[in-house]
């Protein structure tokens, strides 16, 4: 979503300069992206765009930018509509989630790797469950918050674990709904002073009773040009962490080092979080297991030569990895490439057998797509 907002605002700024509108076009574009009189802003901006396009007094370049801005508005609303549809579908799935506590624990413990993470989460669940029982029996119980901080590289399962924790907390009675709301900087910070607090409050209202998951939370404060907005966001968020601690779990996540700076950016923020869990990178065997699990869940298998070659590829990637190593996302990309290569090969096979349709072979790992090989066997 942030990409569409950036392109829309940049194009609006360009048109503003071309027609010497004194910031009016930019203001209307911000009204659309920030939700301030959005409908009025959209109507006014589209009218202005149409006048420019239909007028003879503007140069061709200006008309092209105006047309481009109109397309940006269409793209923005189209993408947001898709997000709304996906959000409703996701909410529907969560509402229909009938898994028992035992099933949720089994799902957690069946995740590939993450042994340290799973151990800490299981300990945390056991602790919270016992504290709840102590309260029910009029015994003293700790007032520790439920909020969590997940740190580590991308693709290490932070979002997946956060979802499971939310459902487990619902099952043991710590949360009333168990809903899961995932947000980023764009969902929390507005473009005008005073509007950020309203956006944060709106997000908190949606998440109450469940989990609010803030991915790349450090991005809230890392932009020096909008530092005041980041501080406004953290002030409201820190207040919510305390006010709704009995029926809201906030999980912040991101790279380890930037997250340390994030907690230093606001006095008292770190004290609102009792549990910090580091998600380590996967090793090559764990990446193998994730890939094979994805294949199995979708009725695919891999022959032994293909497995060996993919394993070598994973080992090579791990040896060259940096802080941006993609972990599970790397596996997802490999999986998608393998299926596409398999499809390219099978589409030209007459009457392929069930085995043909379900087996990824070494040739699919090395298949040349006309530009470059999916993997290298060097």
Automatic annotation (TrEMBL):
GO terms for molecular function: ATP binding; ATP hydrolysis activity. Gene3D superfamilies: 1.10.8.60, P-loop containing nucleotide triphosphate hydrolases. Transmembrane segments: none annotated. The keyword Ribonucleoprotein does not apply. Keywords: ATP-binding, Nucleotide-binding. CDD domains: AAA (cd00009). Pfam families: AAA, AAA_lid_6. SMART domains: AAA. Residues 144-283 form the AAA+ ATPase domain. Signal peptide: none annotated. Belongs to the CbxX/CfxQ family. This is ATPase family protein associated with various cellular activities (AAA). The lineage of its organism: Bacteria, Bacillati, Bacillota, Clostridia, Lachnospirales.
């Amino acid at each position: 979503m942030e990409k569409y907002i950036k392109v829309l605002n940049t194009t609006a700024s360009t048109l503003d300069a071309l027609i010497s509108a004194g910031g009016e076009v930019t203001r209307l574009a911000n009204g659309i992206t920030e939700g301030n009189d959005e409908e009025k802003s959209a109507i006014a901006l589209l009218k202005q765009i149409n006048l420019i396009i239909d007028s003879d007094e503007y140069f061709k370049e200006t008309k092209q930018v105006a047309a481009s801005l109109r397309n940006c508005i269409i793209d923005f609303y189209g993408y947001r509509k898709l997000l709304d549809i996906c959000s409703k579908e996701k909410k529907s799935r969560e509402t229909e989630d009938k898994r028992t506590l035992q099933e949720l624990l089994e799902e957690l413990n069946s995740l590939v790797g993450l042994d340290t993470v799973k151990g800490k989460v299981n300990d945390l669940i056991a602790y919270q469950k016992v504290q709840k029982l102590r309260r029910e029996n009029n015994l003293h119980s700790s007032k520790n918050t439920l909020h969590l901080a997940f740190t580590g590289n991308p693709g290490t399962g932070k979002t997946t674990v956060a979802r499971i924790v939310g459902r487990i907390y619902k099952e043991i009675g710590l949360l009333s709904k168990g809903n899961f709301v995932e947000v980023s900087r764009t969902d929390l910070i507005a473009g005008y002073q005073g509007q950020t607090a309203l956006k944060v409050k709106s997000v908190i209202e949606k998440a109450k009773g469940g989990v609010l998951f803030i991915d790349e939370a450090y991005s809230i404060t890392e932009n020096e040009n909008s530092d005041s907005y980041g501080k406004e966001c953290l002030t409201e968020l820190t207040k919510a962490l305390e006010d709704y601690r009995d029926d809201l779990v906030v999980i912040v996540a991101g790279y380890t080092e930037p997250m340390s700076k994030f907690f230093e950016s606001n006095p008292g923020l770190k004290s609102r979080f009792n549990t910090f869990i580091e998600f380590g990178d996967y090793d090559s065997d764990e990446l193998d297991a994730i890939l094979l699990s994805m294949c199995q869940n979708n009725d695919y298998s891999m022959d032994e030569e293909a497995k060996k070659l993919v394993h070598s590829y994973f080992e090579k990637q791990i040896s060259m990895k940096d802080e941006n190593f993609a972990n599970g996302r790397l596996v997802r990309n490999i999986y998608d490439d393998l299926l596409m290569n398999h499809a390219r090969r099978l589409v030209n096979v007459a009457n392929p057998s069930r085995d043909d349709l379900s087996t990824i072979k070494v040739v699919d790992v090395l298949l040349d797509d006309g530009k470059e090989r999916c993997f290298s066997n060097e």
